[in-house]
């Protein structure tokens, strides 16, 4: 996590994580997440992998954007609401 914290201090593009709940949990625990984007698909699976497992570090979020795409997928974009 120290290397990621150093990367965040450098100028440049965003660091994106796609589909790694374990990595995201570690980044949340280290307070290294500035934004969360969730894509909600209009499909009910009934079972599957949990988004987070075990204990997670609470993270306050502020909804800053919603967008619905033609096939019904909805983007929810949140920014960290750190005090």
Annotated CATH topology = Dihydrofolate Reductase, subunit A
Helix/strand-derived category reads alpha+beta
**Could you report the average pLDDT, rounded to the nearest whole number?**
87
Shape: globular
Q: Percent range for helical residues?
A: 10-25%
Regarding CATH, which class? Alpha Beta
The CATH homologous superfamily corresponds to Dihydrofolate Reductase, subunit A
The number of E-state strands comes to 3
The helix-strand sequence is: HHEEE
| Spatial strand sequence of the major β-sheet | 1-3-2
- Give the termini separation: 22 Å
Largest sheet: 3 strands, antiparallel
Counting DSSP H or I runs of 4 or more residues, the number of helices is 2
Radius of gyration: 14 Å
Number of domains: 1
The appropriate CATH architecture is: 3-Layer(aba) Sandwich
Strand-residue fraction?
25-35%
Describe the 3D structure.
There is one protein chain. Strand 2 (61-68) and strand 3 (74-80) form a beta hairpin. The mean pLDDT is 87. The protein has a single domain, classed as 3-Layer(aba) Sandwich (Dihydrofolate Reductase, subunit A), CATH 3.40.430. It is globular, with a radius of gyration of 14 Å. The protein is 20% helix and 25% strand. It has helices at residues 2-9, 21-29; strands at residues 35-40, 61-68, 74-80. The two termini are 22 Å apart. It is α+β, with helices and mostly antiparallel strands and 83 residues long.
Throw out a few tags for this protein.
83 residues, alpha+beta, Dihydrofolate Reductase, subunit A, three-stranded antiparallel sheet, 3 strands, globular
């Amino acid at each position: 996590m120290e290397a990621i914290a150093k990367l965040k201090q450098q100028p440049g593009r965003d660091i994106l994580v796609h589909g790694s709940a374990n990595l995201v949990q570690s980044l949340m625990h280290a307070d290294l997440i500035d934004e969360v984007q969730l894509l909600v698909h209009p499909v009910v699976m009934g079972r599957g992998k949990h988004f987070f497992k075990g204990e997670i570090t609470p993270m306050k979020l502020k909804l800053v954007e919603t967008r619905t795409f033609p096939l019904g997928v909805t983007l929810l974009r949140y920014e960290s609401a750190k005090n």
